[in-house]
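Can you make up a protein sequence with its backbone structure tokens?

===
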Amino acid sequence: MEANAAEVIQVMERMGVKGVCRIRVKVLDGRDKGKILTRNVVGPIKRGDVILLKDTAMDSVQAMSRR
């Protein structure tokens, strides 16, 4: 399996206390080059960062259910 580079274009929201962020990324290479995805990531992240994605076929699930 090959990892694809993606650039963070928007930090949408921070969820919970565990450091999970919902971000929007643009895929920079691979089969889905140019595709914009929504992902959940853990850890410090900001706009302009480049991350490696294992899978570019799926988006993150929408908002977590609130009680």
